[in-house]
Write a structure and sequence with these properties.
This protein is about 45% helix and about 10% strand. The chain contains twelve helices and twelve strands. The protein has helices at about 20-25, 35-50, 65-70, 90-105, 115-125, 135-145, 185-195, 200-215, 225-230, 235-245, 260-275, 280-300, and strands spanning about 10, 15-20, 55, 80, 85, 130-135, 150-155, 160, 165-170, 170-175, 175-180, 250. Helix 3 packs across helix 4. It is globular.
């Protein structure tokens, strides 16, 4: 959806969750953290025992961890209907500072290349008993570390506590969609196919057939909630998945919005590698984001807000 218009039907859905080695945490007497304060305590205890946690790095292709913190702080990615970046807000700055502090103040390991493989290897070896990744990491772990079956599980992200004591477990969600081109000469047939393809029955059949042929490595991340319930999740995994699903928020898409992950990544790397001020650095890169939003809105004949 954009400005009240439907542009595609959701096909797949993915979002971040917390992966935990239950055997290691229980051996150390550590709980599953429910809030970020609790997470910081568990992280400190793991580091005292020569272990670490995995915090997603700032890649231009995936800033889901930062957006999750942003949403938990009550912030938004854009304002004025997508005409301007909202990452210069106080909520955005505090979320950005929390993210960069994991690397600057807490010394968590920087994975600036091949983060997925390195996390999986360290999670399997026990060097990183706690970490964050898209829930489809389940597929990899199911076949990459069969010896750990029953020793790990995923959980909702730790949450941010608001002034009323309510824990916000928001996570950023993304995925793929099915769309029809406006110049199609068979729009009625295309629409019927799209509706058929994303239906609960077909998504269930497709997901089950994938898994029957390939195994758990092909567990399908369908966006159809009924189809998810029909796939081969255990009761425990399904409950955790649904607990996080309820707090999943989509990353909004706007003209020129491709500059947002690119320059959030640039700001992150500048702060972590050069130790610059998080607030000033993020504000500097927000100017680039706003400039591109204006360029694209002008190109498409849309209303825009000029730079000050």
């Amino acid at each position: 959806m954009h400005e009240g218009e439907l542009f595609a039907l959701p096909e797949t859905k993915d979002f971040q969750m917390m992966f935990a080695r239950l055997d290691i945490l229980y051996e150390l007497g550590l709980p599953i953290p429910q809030t970020w304060d609790e997470f910081n305590i568990v992280m400190s205890e793991l580091q005292k025992n020569q272990m670490d946690v995995h915090i997603p790095f700032g890649f231009a292709t995936d800033i889901g961890f930062y957006l999750s913190l942003l949403f938990q702080h009550g912030g938004d990615v854009y304002r004025y209907g997508g005409m301007q970046s909202a990452l210069d807000s106080e909520e955005a700055v505090q979320a950005f500072r929390s993210w960069t502090n994991f690397f600057i103040l807490h010394g968590t390991e920087i994975f600036d290349w091949d983060p997925g493989t390195r996390f999986v290897n360290n999670f399997r070896s026990g060097q990183m008993p706690l970490g964050f990744a898209n829930y489809t990491m389940f597929n990899t772990l199911a076949v990459f570390a069969p010896e750990l079956r029953g020793s790990w599980q995923f959980f909702p992200l730790p949450g941010t506590v608001d002034e009323n004591g309510v824990i916000n477990h928001s996570t950023a969600a993304g995925g793929a969609s099915t769309m029809m081109l406006s110049q199609s000469t068979n729009q009625d047939a295309a629409w019927e196919f799209m509706r058929w393809w994303v239906s609960a029955e077909v998504q269930t059949l497709y997901g089950r057939e994938l898994e029957s042929l390939i195994g758990a490595a092909a567990r399908y991340n369908t966006a159809n909630l009924q189809a998810v319930e029909n796939l081969s999740w255990t009761v425990a995994d399904h409950n955790m998945l649904m607990a996080q699903w309820e707090h999943a928020r989509a990353f909004p898409q706007v003209p020129g919005g491709y500059f947002t992950p690119r320059h959030v990544s640039n700001a992150f790397r500048t702060v972590v590698h050069n130790l610059t001020d998080p607030r000033e650095t993020l504000w500097d890169f927000v100017e680039y984001i706003n400039a591109e939003i204006i360029n694209k809105r002008r190109e498409f004949g849309l209303e825009y807000i000029p730079l000050r």
